[in-house]
Amino acid sequence: MIWRNLASNFLTLAIVLLIAAAAAVAWAKREFTGPGPSAVAQCIQIAPGASLGAVSARLAEQGAISNAYIFRAGADYAGKSRDLKFGSFLVPPGASMEEIVDVVTSGGPSTCGTEVVVRVGVRENSVLLRDMNPDTGAYEEMARWNPATGAAPEAIATAQEQADIRLSLVMAEGVTSWQVVEALKAATFLTGEITEIPAEGSLAPDTYMLKKGDDRSAILAEMARRQEAILAAEWEARPFGMPYETPQEALIMASIVEKETGVASERPQVASVFVNRLRQGMRLQTDPTVIYGVTNGQGILDRGLRRSELDATTPYNTYRIDGLPPTPIANPGRAAIRAALNPDETDYLFFVADGTGGHAFSRTLEEHNAAVARWREIERQQGLPADSPVQSGG
To answer: Are residues 170 and 275 in the same domain?
Structure first.
């Protein structure tokens, strides 16, 4: 009788414990997957080599999660407890612990905190020090430096040396390889010497996440790898009948398209003008190629072309030579490469600025001359200096 009572009590206790355990598991699951306690975005910084325990404790202290133990157990159950990535990560308001685990183990770029951004621009290179406002999720500029003006401001110089700072390089479409090299040289947190400027057009405009001590030549190699992959994919998908014998010729055309318009939607139209000219045996007559021949890609001309420069016979003067110049004149982005290989079907042979930031396209020389006259009047009304004697696409 006693043993029967003991067995009954044990069974009852076991059932109660199982029910309690099931309830605890269900509660923990709700805690892990349900909305988090933070009403504002938070920036979570994870140092190299940090443990999951330290990170979960920090998250709990910041109020991003409600329970450090559940966070660790959930990450372990998901098989991600060893996948922490160092950097600064933005946790959205109300993010669940499950979502935060994904954020800090995904391996993507850091998304918040203080960052140094090396910007390779068409007009100038610059280095920015920015910090994210967690209340708005927007970055606020703290300092800016043009490397051509001298030494870096103390704030930027100090930030570049911090071990956990987020570092990136943003390469604009249409910059030259010389400009990229100059930007990499100015990034003092990088290492290694650059022995030669990469071939023009061979580098992919993109955002590159960097680390302190990265080798400059390795970064250039990655830029070249990406551009090679882009060009190969676009060349493979090209339609029949394009007037290019090699991918390099398409890259040259893409660089011209890139330099001729800053309006993304115009690229296929601009490309159609030059493709139509190639097919008809007309000269390309485009100012950016002449400018490249004058500057060798080392900065911008910052003045109109002189008559002597337009009259000179050089490999890049497309007013004087037939066909394409010998090399690209900049590093084009994917959109320009795609436009060069997939131009609009048009009858356009000319284009000129229209005063809105875009261009007026024409089928005949008579139409084009009228468009040029309208542009000259706009220049006069706005007090702008007269453009070069022969307009782009003229």
So the answer is: no
**Distance of alpha carbon 66 from alpha carbon 260, whole angstroms:** 55
Q: What is the Cα–Cα distance from 245 to 78, expressed in whole angstroms?
A: 52
Per-residue pLDDT of the chain (394 residues; tens, 9 = 90+): 565 665 566 666 667 677 766 676 677 688 888 888 887 667 777 877 788 888 888 888 888 899 999 999 998 888 888 888 877 777 778 889 998 888 888 866 566 678 899 999 999 999 988 887 766 667 788 889 888 888 888 888 888 887 767 888 999 999 999 999 999 998 989 999 999 999 999 999 998 988 889 999 999 999 999 999 999 999 999 999 999 999 999 999 999 999 999 889 999 999 999 999 999 999 999 999 999 999 999 988 888 889 999 999 999 999 999 999 999 999 999 999 999 999 999 999 998 887 778 888 888 898 888 888 887 887 777 766 555 444 455 4
State the residue range of the domain holding 60. 31-110
- Domain limit, last residue, from 110, 141, 172: 110
The amino acid present at 52, given as its one-letter code, is L
Q: Which residues of 106-119 are buried (b: 16+ CB within 10 A; e: fewer)?
A: eeeebbbbbbbbbb
Residues 358 and 275 in one domain: yes
Residue 24: closest CA among 60, 67, 54: 67
Identify the domain boundary among 183, 204, 231.
Answer: 231
Residue 348 within a domain: yes
Q: Which residues contact 169 (CB under 8 A, 6 or more apart)?
A: 117, 118, 119, 120, 183, 184, 187, 207, 208, 210, 219
The C-alpha atoms of residue 112 and residue 133 are separated, in whole angstroms, by 9
Q: Are 218 and 253 in contact (CB under 8 A)?
A: no
Number of domains observed in the structure of the chain: 3
